[in-house]
């Protein structure tokens, strides 16, 4: 298989997909499930999910030999094997619709204009390796030799993370592409919500961030991690899902939305001393949860980080994040277990 991907287009998608399975002896249904879920939850950098779907359709309709994209593979394949595998991946992607909202997509570098038109809205107190690890992404090498990562947030904003080297440290600048009528502080709030970074990890360079805002963004980083871990556990046949340390730490940092009671306290379900407090990653989901209940009074809400919420609830209780979803997960004060 070639060491370098083809130019942008369906050939690059097919090459990338076959590259990830080149050592697999059999292109079986488990492998199809793994790759289809991967394309839905972690699409290749520079591609949206519909672009990946359409690329596979174009490849399958092409009369071009797809084996030419993978000369001398470690495991010999036939043209029929490759096409059948791609067809089953495409069909499984279709069956997984509606696809869950992603917090952001990694963009192609050549889709950006000169960064000189962008405003720096924050500095992350982390280097590019730490940021990349947190976001499950790899920084690009720019034409001037620097490192950067362009993102499109689910709020519609586009930001570039750019490595900054100083004499005694390295950090990452957050640059926002201009967008008419969009305040920089709202872009920053959306960025924090969908990436899981918190105000304590940044220098705020806007006119003043509202730490309780999500800047109009949709699904956030914690919901994404929980979906991802649930998908991985499903593929591995693990039940219940075991929460990783990194996801637990993301829970502690994330601002969650809960229903309050008339007297000081929170709504909980389950037996005293072993119950769960429902908490939601989006206020709209909490409103729907409250509306589904039998109480016709106006519900009262509040927000708190996962860490503060664990401190607020009685001993023995846990926090159930996004109940009613396929990825609903309980968190206890003692950490992941």
From TrEMBL:
<dbReference type="InterPro" id="IPR009839">
    <property type="entry name" value="SseB_N"/>
</dbReference>
<feature type="domain" description="SseB protein N-terminal">
    <location>
        <begin position="230"/>
        <end position="332"/>
    </location>
</feature>
<protein>
    <submittedName>
        <fullName>SseB family protein</fullName>
    </submittedName>
</protein>
<dbReference type="Pfam" id="PF07179">
    <property type="entry name" value="SseB"/>
</dbReference>
């Amino acid at each position: 298989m070639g060491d370098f991907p083809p130019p942008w287009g369906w050939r690059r998608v097919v090459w990338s997909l076959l590259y990830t399975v080149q050592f697999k002896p059999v292109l079986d249904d488990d492998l199809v499930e793994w790759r289809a879920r991967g394309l839905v939850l972690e699409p290749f950098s520079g591609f949206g999910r519909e672009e990946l779907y359409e690329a596979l359709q174009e490849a399958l309709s092409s009369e071009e030999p797809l084996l030419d994209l993978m000369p001398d593979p470690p495991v010999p394949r036939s043209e029929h094997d490759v096409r059948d595998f791609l067809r089953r991946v495409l069909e499984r992607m279709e069956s997984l619709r509606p696809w869950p909202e992603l917090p952001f997509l990694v963009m192609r570098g050549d889709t950006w204009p000169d960064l000189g038109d962008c405003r720096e809205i924050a500095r992350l107190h982390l280097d590019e390796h730490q940021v990349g690890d947190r976001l499950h992404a790899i920084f690009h090498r720019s034409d001037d030799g620097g490192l950067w990562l362009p993102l499109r947030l689910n709020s519609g904003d586009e930001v570039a993370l750019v490595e900054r080297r100083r004499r005694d440290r390295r950090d990452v600048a957050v640059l926002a592409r201009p967008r008419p009528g969009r305040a920089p502080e709202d872009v920053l709030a959306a960025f924090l919500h969908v990436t899981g970074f918190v105000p304590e990890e940044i220098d705020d360079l806007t006119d003043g961030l509202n730490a309780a805002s999500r800047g109009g963004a949709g699904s956030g980083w914690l919901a994404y991690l929980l979906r991802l871990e649930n998908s991985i556990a499903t593929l591995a046949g693990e039940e219940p899902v075991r929460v990783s340390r990194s996801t637990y730490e993301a829970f502690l940092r994330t601002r969650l939305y809960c229903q309050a009671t008339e007297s000081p306290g929170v709504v909980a379900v389950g037996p005293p001393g072993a119950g769960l407090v429902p908490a939601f990653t989006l206020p709209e989901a909490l409103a729907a949860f409250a509306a589904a209940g039998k109480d016709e009074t106006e519900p009262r809400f509040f927000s708190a980080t996962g860490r503060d919420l664990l401190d607020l609830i009685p001993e023995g209780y846990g926090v159930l994040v996004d109940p009613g979803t396929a990825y609903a997960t309980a968190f206890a004060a003692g950490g992941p277990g």
